[in-house]
Design a protein that fits this description.
The chain is of the alpha/beta class and 256 residues long. It contains eight helices and eight strands, in the order ααβαβαβαβαβααβββ.
């Protein structure tokens, strides 16, 4: 169910329990060996997919300087800025938004040290949509499994896109393999993440996510798996294996 907010503010799909989990880890966002080690390992694979999809949709040459110049991009659930910073380096006008207030000063401080200008805000997708904000690209990475109302949340993301805009959304599949990998492996055995970081029951299958995306008024056009290789200790994209982590691209064809 949607959770109410004070009068004058938009309704929100934020789950306070989920926000508290990430607030407790805020100081460790940029430690590659800390609690966000899995994201640091996954980041090159995520960036490969994100960049290729944006470049294809907006006809940008990734070999040129500042290929994303002129594109306004929202990184919703930005955390410490692991995706916001490379997008800014590629020339995008980046807004990084997060519901956990402690994440914002961490992201701002790191961007300042890196010499990057990024508009970081403690806010939600619903509040940005209510304010009439519009973006060419919405990055919605590893967030949808943490909200209280995925359909309402994705609808807010759709409202944030300009016609012709692109949403890239990643999450975790819900099956026995993802339970073993994400819950038992990452949280209990490897201890990459604190126990309880993920709720397996909130994981979303690829078909379920496509249905939610369509229900939000977006047109899903691509999906890929992100597969971990324990031998090479690396991640790669797969067109066939969506059994655990996966990522999708959707387009807002016209006003809905």
């Amino acid at each position: 169910m949607l959770q109410g907010k004070p009068k004058g503010q938009a309704m929100t799909t934020i789950d306070p329990i989920e926000v508290a989990k990430f607030e407790a880890m805020a100081a460790e966002w940029w430690d590659p060996n800390g609690k966000f080690k899995p994201l640091h390992m996954l980041n090159p694979c995520r960036l490969d997919y994100i960049c290729s999809q944006i470049a294809a949709e907006f006809d940008r040459d990734l070999t040129g300087p500042l290929p994303f110049k002129g594109l306004r991009l929202l990184d919703i659930g930005c955390g410490g800025g692991l995706l916001s910073e490379p997008m800014a380096r590629l020339g995008a006008d980046v807004v990084g938004a997060d519901a956990a207030p402690r994440n914002i000063p961490v992201a701002q401080a790191h961007a300042a040290v890196s010499g990057l200008t990024i508009d970081y805000r403690h806010t939600t997708a619903e509040d940005l949509a209510a304010a009439g904000e519009q973006f060419d690209v919405v990055l919605n990475m590893e967030v949808v499994e943490h909200v209280s109302d995925p359909q309402g949340y994705l609808t807010a993301c759709q409202q944030l896109l300009k016609p012709g805009g692109l949403m890239i959304c990643s999450t975790l599949n819900r099956n026995s393999k993802s339970y073993v990998m994400a819950i038992i492996g990452a949280e209990q055995v490897m201890r990459w993440l604190p126990k309880g970081t993920h709720d397996w029951k909130k994981f979303i299958t690829p078909d379920e996510l496509y249905g939610l995306i369509r229900g939000a008024g977006l047109d899903p056009v691509d999906r890929k798996g992100m597969v971990f290789n324990p031998l090479g200790w690396s991640w790669s994209l797969s067109s066939r294996d969506l059994s655990c982590n996966y990522v999708t691209t959707s387009i807002k064809r016209s006003e809905v």
